[in-house]
Amino acid sequence: MKSTALKLASAIGKASPLYDFWKSEQCENDEAKRLLKANRESPASYLFKAEPYKWENLYQSIIREIIKGDKDSIKGLKVLLSTINTEEKEKMLKTLGESEILDREMLSLAAMTDTDNATTKKNIFRFARILFTIFFNPYGIELKREKNHIYEHTGAFFGAFTKAKY
Length: 166
Fold this sequence. Notes:
Elements: H1 2-15, H2 19-23, H3 28-35, H4 45-50, H5 52-67, H6 73-82, H7 86-98, H8 104-111, H9 124-136, H10 150-165
Helix pairs in contact: 1-7, 5-6, 5-9, 6-8, 7-8, 9-10
């Protein structure tokens, strides 16, 4: 069971457009490559450009919510997909499908370009889980550049604590 969870976590991480960035030294050149993946047309791309740590935590959390069957999280995934360029979006969706992280129905819903105005039910538990991930870094995201936000500092602290524990 544990190996299946680790394989899933690894596959989710590898599908992220930020995967190579997290594995890099995160120097200026790596940062420039990361920024090329942003969708310059999307107002929401600020999150991808300015706060990659938060973007990655949201991505990982939302994918896990969808895997658990939460169709309302598709809307969040669509927003995240709108922050990256078309090539990265297609690559991410292809990887999510090929690795069988998301089923065909969820992939087709996520691939729809419309940002429908359908209401989604509020889920305080989903919100709390996502907020928890941003502050406590359970996915082990390593931000090597300067940390500008409190959640980046707490995430780095808990990430280091988790690494030291093992």
